[in-house]
Amino acid sequence: MLNLKQHIRGIPDFPKPGILFYDIGTLLAHAEAWRQTIAQLADILRPMKPDMLVGIESRGFVVTAPLAVALGTGFVMVRKKGKLPGKTIPHSYALEYGTDTIELQQGMIKPGQRVIVCDDLLATGGTAAATIALLRQVDAQVVHAAFIIELAFLGGRKRLDVPASSLVSYDN
Fold this sequence. Notes:
The protein is of the alpha/beta class. The strands form two sheets. The protein has a seven-stranded mixed sheet with strand order 5-6-4-3-7-8-9, with helices on both faces. The chain has a two-stranded antiparallel ribbon with strand order 1-2. Strand 3, helix 3 and strand 4 form a beta-alpha-beta unit.
């Protein structure tokens, strides 16, 4: 089994000074590390028997699509306002300075479906918590949230009211 941390590159001062960005681009570029990442996530999520996986824009799509194939489920996208065609269901949420809105295409999730939220990284948990709230607007049963990377020092897991899994955690 590969050490996935060895395949995740830290980029200092991106997108602004003082931020250390954890880039999964190097993980994606290493075929065996990427295969193991998807296999490990699938092994964690399979026992939950999800009906649908929901990926958060945009790197969450890269994670969720192959994971949905591995689990034999559908995949639905949650995107920023104005990015999805057709009728959408919006959910606005507070940011540190202002608000943002995410959307889900109407009719993609059926009431009562067992849903797992997926993204590449859990930081403060704001977008993941907003995605869970949006899914509950359509009566989805959100059973779990899954991430490749968790920045544990930011406490994002505390903002989620569902169980969460991550493959790699950074404590500072």
